[in-house]
Predict the structure.
Amino acid sequence: MRMLSSMLAAGTLMLTASSTLLGQTELPAHQATIDASFLGVNFGFAARSSARTYIGASVGLGGNWWNYMALGGKHFAEAGGPSYEAKDGREGKALAELLRGSIFVRHEFASGRQLQVGLKGSGFFHFDNSDDEPGGGSFVGVNITGTWLRWRALGLGSEVDIGRYSEGRPEFGVNVAPLLLRVSF
């Protein structure tokens, strides 16, 4: 009986200590992020909606200047990349974001990695070898951002935009920005 009492007391003590320790590892109620990509910065703020999920918004200047149009129409498709229609024959294409904004849901995995899915709108410049000056355009669609490597507050990840690109004539496109640095606080 004495052994049983000792085991119950030890178990109660361990449960109390572990629930206290688990409470210390709980994610914060709010999370701010700064995403830095080639020639751009994006500021985000999110509120926790469940144990590992946040809902938030972000705004940014520049960014995603180093990217690849993985799928596009005749005007935005890369010269060597796939297109769902005949290409316009122009080469040296580049798309450079100027302004951007999004609303999103972010899931934080136990490993610290993050997956963020949201709706995004942006304004951009578009260049190709036929342009003396860049053309202005807009994007509206889905944004998927993931951090696949995390160390403390720093995350390294990628971003994919899927949606409507328009520079006069709207086209469907999938644009990949392979590298971003995220600071979370």
Residues 27-184 form a domain with the Porin fold (CATH 2.40.160). The chain has one domain: 27-184.
